[in-house]
């Protein structure tokens, strides 16, 4: 087993990628929400972010089934936690961009659960 720890073999965190039916749509939603540009886009994949930091990727899955949170039938699998200064303003902006607010809100005074246009839950919080 090699113990080479040179920078040539070091891992770098590049992106988190979400499955979806329409990568361009989801990249547009998160790009607007997070004010991040599209770095790369094809019919099957889109990546938003900045060249000097990790980004968010979106890959086309033909038979994508959105999560059904809070129903465990097809759980959330993963979600983003986004820090904000004002929960009400952040929620309003996300909803205007196409997010949906599910009825289930475990602790709406501390964080809000929203769902992106492809069905992935994400949270906004003032705690981060």
Features:
128 residues; alpha/beta; Signal recognition particle alu RNA binding heterodimer, srp9/1; 4-stranded mixed beta sheet; 7 strands; 17% helix
**CATH superfamily (homologous) name of the largest domain:** 2,3-Dihydroxybiphenyl 1,2-Dioxygenase, domain 1
**How much helix is in the residues?**
10-25%
Topology order in helix (H) and strand (E) letters: EHEEEEHEE
Mean pLDDT figure: 88
CATH architecture of the largest domain: Roll
Number of beta strands: 7
Number of domains: 2
Please give the largest β-sheet: 4 strands, mixed
Our count of helices gives 2
Given helix and strand content, the structural type is alpha/beta
Estimated share of beta-strand residues = 25-35%
Question: Alpha-carbon distance between the termini?
Answer: 39 Å
Task: Give unreliable regions as ranges.
Answer: none
Describe, in plain words, how this protein is organized in 3D.
It contains two helices and seven strands; from the N terminus they run E-H-E-E-E-E-H-E-E. With 128 residues, the protein is an alpha/beta fold. It folds into two domains: 13-64, Signal recognition particle alu RNA binding heterodimer, srp9/1 (2-Layer Sandwich); 70-128, Roll (2,3-Dihydroxybiphenyl 1,2-Dioxygenase, domain 1). The chain has a four-stranded mixed β-sheet, covered by helices on one side. Strand 3 and strand 4 (55-60) form a beta hairpin. The protein is globular and about 40 Å long. The model has no long low-confidence stretch (mean pLDDT 88).
